[in-house]
Specification:
By secondary structure, this protein is an alpha/beta fold. It has 13 helices and 13 strands. α3 packs across α11, α9 crosses α10 and α11 runs antiparallel to α12.
Length: 332
């Protein structure tokens, strides 16, 4: 696949991210559980949005979208598929993809009654995040929206686990995984969130067993997937399903299972401002390295560097070139 046009093609829920710092009393007043990620309806997201006078950041987002942005910052050639509406937020998303140099072939929803999805990320003391997501137009992405040409021209297909939450996107994700496997592409799957794993555990396990080459998860997500309190037990389980697993552990760094080899990687020593998007950034570094046929230890180092950059500021996108940063740190 060395002649592939794209290093990575990601599929995900296309949404606009809004990040705001709030006191913990705000979460209590709005009946939000600190540190959780929840799906809300249009009315709820609209009301919450009105309470944010001065957001820290507003730009294209979504887990897989954040990952391709990181890959682009490393100098990679990514593609992305996900649905927005034909509205102001949808244009913001599309323009952002274009500025990053990301191939984005998906046509928008034109129904005026449907708006682009939105995620509000409330950051509180200790850089903790509490997220509320309205999926909007993103749930209209179905198998018919998959650009098979772009898919086949990609080395690695990266699938966002959040897409398992809705029928259309679940069917699209499974179709993309099958098509990628048939085309000889590597398939990566991100678990995304503990609640998402709990909602879709059996589907995750079936998808991992059938088509995934590599999974991306944080420690809590992996424990939830295998219903255990012990990381060692979860690692033993995941060995039975995939050759490669990337397990992030926040300040403890990450554990990489690479074809029976277990690697422990230390986290970057940075001042944590906002943890939002750290896992997405780690995946970006790892996938970029993988697309360049680098050793798993180097891929992990790139993931650590990318995650360290993201958590050092508000927002889910790099504020400096990850390629330059990696070169400065001797990783590239």
């Amino acid at each position: 696949m060395s002649s592939s046009t794209y290093d990575v093609c990601a599929l995900g829920n296309a949404i606009v991210d809004i990040v705001a710092d709030v006191p913990e009393t705000f979460l209590q007043q709005q009946h939000l559980v600190k540190g959780t990620a929840s799906l809300v309806d249009r009315a709820r997201i609209t009301n919450l949005r009105k309470l944010i006078a001065k957001p820290r950041m507003m730009r294209a987002g979504g887990a897989a979208s954040n990952t391709v942005a990181g890959i682009a910052s490393f100098g990679g050639k990514p593609a992305y598929m996900g649905k927005v509406a034909y509205d102001e937020s949808g244009k913001l998303f599309s323009d952002d993809m274009a500025k990053l140099g990301v191939r984005y072939p998906t046509e928008p929803v034109t129904d005026q009654n449907i708006s682009t999805g939105m995620c509000l990320s409330f950051v509180t003391t200790g850089a903790n995040r509490t997220m509320c997501t309205y999926l909007g137009a993103s749930v209209d992405f179905g198998p018919g929206d998959i650009d098979s040409t772009v898919l086949k021209q990609s080395q690695i297909i990266y699938l966002e686990g959040y897409m398992l939450d809705k029928p259309n996107t679940r069917e699209a994700l499974q179709a993309a995984a099958n098509n990628a496997r048939a085309a000889g592409c590597k398939v990566g799957l991100a678990l995304c969130d503990v609640s998402c794993v709990e909602r879709n555990r059996e589907t995750f396990l079936a998808l991992i067993g059938a088509t995934a080459d590599i999974i991306f998860a944080n420690e809590k997500e992996l424990l939830a997937l295998y219903k255990t309190f012990h990381l060692d037990a979860a690692i033993q389980h995941v060995k039975e399903h995939v050759k490669t697993a990337v397990v992030t552990r926040s300040e403890k760094g990450a554990i990489i299972l690479d074809d029976k080899r277990l690697l422990n990687v230390s986290a970057e020593a940075v001042k944590v401002v906002d943890k939002t998007g750290a896992g997405d950034a780690f995946a970006a570094g790892y996938l970029y390295g993988l697309s360049k046929k680098l050793d798993a230890s180097v891929c992990a180092r790139l993931g650590v560097i990318a995650a360290g950059e993201i958590i050092s500021h508000y927002g889910t996108r790099p504020e400096q070139s990850l390629a330059t940063l990696a070169k400065q740190k001797g990783a590239l």
